[in-house]
Structure formats: C-alpha cells, structure tokens
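does this look right to u?? NAP version
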Amino acid sequence: MLRSKKLGFIGGGNMAEAMIKGLISASFVEPKNIFVSDVVPDRLEFLHSEYKVKTVQDNRELVEKCDILVLAVKPQVIKKVIEKVRDLIDAKKLLVSVAAGVPIETILEVLKAGQNKKYNVVRTMPNTPALVQEGVTAIAAGDNVSKVDIQIAHRLFEAVGKTVDVEEVHLDAVTGLSGSGPAYIFMIIEALSDAGVKMGLSRDVANILTVQTVLGSAKLALESHKHPGELKDMVTSPGGTTISGLRALEEGGLRSTLMNAVEAATNRSKELGRNAKKQEDNGAKEDKSD
Ligand SMILES: NC(=O)c1ccc[n+]([C@@H]2O[C@H](COP(=O)([O-])OP(=O)(O)OC[C@H]3O[C@@H](n4cnc5c(N)ncnc54)[C@H](OP(=O)(O)O)[C@@H]3O)[C@@H](O)[C@H]2O)c1
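got this back:
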C-alpha cells in the first residue's frame, strides 16, 4: 500500500524523525522513497546520513516529487508553508497533518484560496512516545478522503505505535488525554520515584523500580485484556499493604484529579483552537482591507 508511494515530510524535526525511523525499521517504506525538506541544512544532513533518506531544501521540489505529504512543521508556520506550495497540490496527493490544533477546515481554506477544488486532507494527533515507536495517534479524515487513503494514514502511524479513528470534533479530548497524557505519567513517575527516595531507596533504584512498574503494568493491561479494576484487585489482598496505599490515593483524590486534568487540557485545547480561528478571521479582514 505504501511501498509504491513517494512519501514527503515537510519539516524534518522530532515527529518526522520518529516516523521515518519507524517506517524504515518496519520496512513499510524504502529510504529511497522518503523525501524530507527543512529550513535547517544540518538537520537534513543528519537525516540523510542516519536514515539514507533523500533531502531537499525547497518545499516545492518535495511537493512535486511526492504522492503523500506529511505536514510536520509547527502549527504557527503551517499556513505560510501551504500557501507557498498549494499550486502544486491536487486531489491525487494525500496531505497528512500532524500539527496540533490546526483544523482541516483551515488547511482546506488555505489550499483552495477561494477556488472550489477538492483535496485529501487527514488530521492526526500523535504523542511523544512515538519517538520510541510506542505512540498512539488519533486520525480524523476530512470529507472526500477515500478508504484507501485513510488506511494509508493508519499505516504511516502504525510505524510509531497504535492508531485510532476519531471524528475531528473529538481531537481536543484526544489532546487532553493522550496528547498531554505523557506529561501526566512523567509527573507520576517522578512522584513515585521521590516517594521511594523518601522511604530510603537510592534514586537509581527508585527510578528503575518506578519506570519498570509503569511499563509492566501498561503491558499487562494491554495484553491481558482485563478491566484495570480486576488487575488492581489481583494486587490487593485483604488487610494487606496495597489496600492501605489505595486508600491514601483515594483520600488524595487521585481519580478526580486525573479527570480534572484531562478536562482542563481538553478545554484549553478548545480555547487555543478558538483563539487561532479568531486570529485567522482578523487576518482575513486585514487582507481584504489592504
Ligand atoms: N513532537 C511531538 O511529540 C508531537 C506530538 C504531537 C504533535 N506534534 C506536531 O508535530 C509537528 C512538528 O513537531 P516537532 O516536534 O517535530 O517540531 P520540530 O522538531 O520543531 O520540527 C519542525 C521542523 O520544521 C522546520 N521548519 C520550520 N519552518 C519550515 C519550513 N517553512 N519548511 C520546512 N521546514 C520548516 C523546523 O526548523 P526550525 O527549528 O528552524 O523552525 C524544524 O526543523 C508540530 O505541528 C506539532 O504540533 C508533535
């Protein structure tokens, strides 16, 4: 499905590198069919020497050469990037955006520039564990995107972890849960490790015990297909140590705190989206009055 396609990354930063590494090591795409453009020449040199991918400094050259374009630049520059290449894009190309908070509608507006053309745009929300091929990516497809193109988008991100389909309206909740989620888990890891040190363990030992406990518990939850409550009960013997620890967590409001965190991050994601839309509308008004 992917092997016959030419894949182009506009922006060769962290997310692009994670995907390139995953795609090559899974043999989903050959390095000769991967192109990367970036404004930083050193970055291109590094990606070429490390992964043997083809690199170009000009985004237009990359767009001309590729069937699938991954927009892997920061959200603040995505509109300018599209504006400069839009005349080279048509309905035969698939556009996959990883830019947080940039709606499909915005990408389509920039692409169309007032014309009534059709484009294939998919918006995604990966997370940082993609850097170690253990990410999770939510995928939302725009109108007109074919089933085959949606499958291609899944394949791209299966190289760096798992994928799920969502309606675009749910991407704020995805951002609040799995997008920001790694930070919640890192804070929990840090706190548990501190707790081990408080109880007299060395930092190194506390870190290993904590990180492996989080990793192993996640793997058990994933592979056993058991409800997390059942897995928790397996560790919790009557009158034992775990139930005392769990009671302390309940007293500290762990569940409500985590729910509040996801709700707060989801609401912030919505707010940032609304602010971006306002700026866009103001920009359009200024353009018209020029
Ligand atoms: N990293 C993650 O885990 C993660 C998770 C979810 C979503 N995302 C999304 O992924 C996108 C990329 O994130 P990232 O962390 O990979 O960012 P990054 O490391 O900053 O990579 C972006 C790269 O694009 C380059 N660039 C800037 N302007 C360009 C242009 N006009 N043409 C070509 N390249 C250009 C940047 O150069 P300069 O550094 O000189 O600007 C940089 O090398 C973002 O939109 C972000 O929202 C990332």
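The CA atoms of residues 192 and 210 lie 6 Å apart. idk if thats expected tbh
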